[in-house]
Amino acid sequence: MSDTPPRWSKATVYPDMWADPDDDPRDSVGIGPDGELATLQDFLTSYRMTLRMKCEGLDAEQLARRSVPPSTMSLLGLVRHLAEVERDWRNWISEGEPLPKLYGERDADFDGAVAEQAEVDAAYAALEREQAATDAALAEHPDPSERLAKDGIAVRELLVHRIDEYARHCGHADLLRECVDGRVGQ
């Protein structure tokens, strides 16, 4: 008897996919967006959706499960971490005092990811709030080459860094989800 769940996918058209193409909200019909800024924002949106898709259908215990010991990483921890990171990115482009951390000391975003529905709800609310605030701050700077704040980070660099962060963590989410219930796919 193995504790490893059997691998499975909801997809019926291509068995290595997370969802059938007609059911995948990330797949849009037609050509991609025009322009650098729209393209970067489209990729960011897609990775944000991917993270949510990898978490959907799980209860609080499954979301908080640390699937790859000794790591403290969990799907819920990833949601909390990305909320924290969105807030931190605003600190990079702000001239004011840095915003305080959402979850406290280093790794508290993962360490505090406990299997309680209230914690899950709070994590999703924080992620949505922080994403919206960072998006709004960057919307004031539509030129990707504009340099912001004292460190002079370019809007382009920040957007690429955000895409990179979500992409890496979506890869982690793939492995974490497969350990939780065996579900696989892009």
Strands, helices and their partners?
Elements: H1 36-55, H2 60-64, H3 75-93, H4 108-111, H5 117-139, E1 147-148, E2 153-154, H6 155-181
Antiparallel strand pairs: 1-2
Helix pairs in contact: 1-6, 3-5, 3-6
Description of the molecule:
This is DinB family protein. It is a single chain. A two-stranded antiparallel ribbon has the order 1-2. It has a single domain (35-181), classed as dinb family like domain (Four Helix Bundle (Hemerythrin (Met), subunit A), Up-down Bundle). The chain is 53% helix and 2% strand. The chain has six helices and two strands, in the order αααααββα. The chain is flat. The protein has 186 residues and is mainly α.
- Give the domain tally: 1
Q: Please state roughly what percent of the residues sit in beta strands, choosing from under 5%, 5-15%, 15-25%, 25-35%, 35-45% or over 45%.
A: under 5%
Distance between the first and last residues' Cα: 28 Å
Beta-strand segment tally: 2
**Briefly, what CATH class?**
Mainly Alpha
- Roughly how many Å is the radius of gyration? 18 Å
CATH topology call: Four Helix Bundle (Hemerythrin (Met), subunit A)
Helix/strand order, N-terminal first:
HHHHHEEH
Tell me what the CATH architecture is.
Up-down Bundle
Total helical segments: 6
The CATH superfamily is dinb family like domain
